[in-house]
Amino acid sequence: AAAVRINPSILAADFVRMADELARIAAADFVHVDVMDNHFVPNLTFGPQMVERIQDTSPVPLDVHLMIDDPERWAPGYAEIGAASVTFHLEAAREPVSLARRLRAVGARAGVAVKPATPVESLFDVLDEFDQILVMTVEPGFGGQSFMPDTMPKLRALAAEARRRGSEVWLQVDGGIGESTIAQAAEAGADTFVAGSAVFGAAHPEQAIVALRDRAHR
Ligand code: DX5
Ligand code: ZN
């Protein structure tokens, strides 16, 4: 089976016990770090100073998801901190391809994310400018929402296009991913799975990661 990545979202972690929470997910592939600015989404989390401390502390590489306006101003700074991947939103970027190139130039994987209602056709011709494409499976802003199955046709279209072009781009899903939904996203073509409440809400996060990985492979 192809590689599958499980990226727990620390949005569902206890923020004042962050070092302990990070230690609980050492079996993960990346830690997903949700940056929100209360403009692009109606919620606020943390910024570069906190992410730098997470980078210093985390046993696994960082997968930063920027739900912010003006990513041109902020995204390269997260790459400079050492985040393994930095994903900005297509809806917020003025020139997505040139921003992706700037992120790669700093050594990060470049990601672009789309909200549930945003079409993905404009990405087809530039797939290889990105290392990952994040198809949001909820409206961004909050953890614990229900997976939206009507986002799956977009994922299928991206997967078909990536196959057709022989692209190595990773296809990520985020929102409502758990043991009962991960298989349908995998079947539609996702290979990289963000899970917040399904991991940090579990009694044993390490076991939850193993269970998710197992279901994504079926
Ligand atoms: C939502 C965030 C997600 C969130 C997922 O806007 O981008 O990463 O943490 O949380 P769950 O897995 O609980 O839906
Ligand atoms: Zn996210």
Automatic annotation (TrEMBL):
One annotated GO molecular function: D-ribulose-phosphate 3-epimerase activity
Cofactor(s) the record lists: Fe(2+); Zn(2+); a divalent metal cation; Co(2+)
Gene3D superfamilies on file: Aldolase class I
Associated pathway: Carbohydrate degradation
Catalytic residues (positions): 34 (proton acceptor), 174 (proton donor)
Catalytic activity, as annotated: D-ribulose 5-phosphate = D-xylulose 5-phosphate
Cofactor binding, note field: Binds 1 divalent metal cation per subunit.
The EC number(s) this enzyme carries: 5.1.3.1
Positions annotated to bind substrate: 9, 65, 141-144, 174-176, 196-197
InterPro entries registered for this protein in UniProt: Aldolase_TIM (IPR013785), Ribul_P_3_epim (IPR026019), Ribul_P_3_epim-like (IPR000056), RibuloseP-bd_barrel (IPR011060)
Enzymatic class: isomerase
Pfam families, A to Z: Ribul_P_3_epim
Keywords from the named record: Carbohydrate metabolism, Isomerase, Metal-binding
Binding site for a divalent metal cation: 32, 34, 65, 174
UniProt keyword annotation of Repeat present: no
Protein task: Catalyzes the reversible epimerization of D-ribulose 5-phosphate to D-xylulose 5-phosphate.
Family statement drawn from the similarity comment of this UniProt entry: Belongs to the ribulose-phosphate 3-epimerase family.
Alphabetized HAMAP family for the sequence: RPE
Protein name per the record: Ribulose-phosphate 3-epimerase
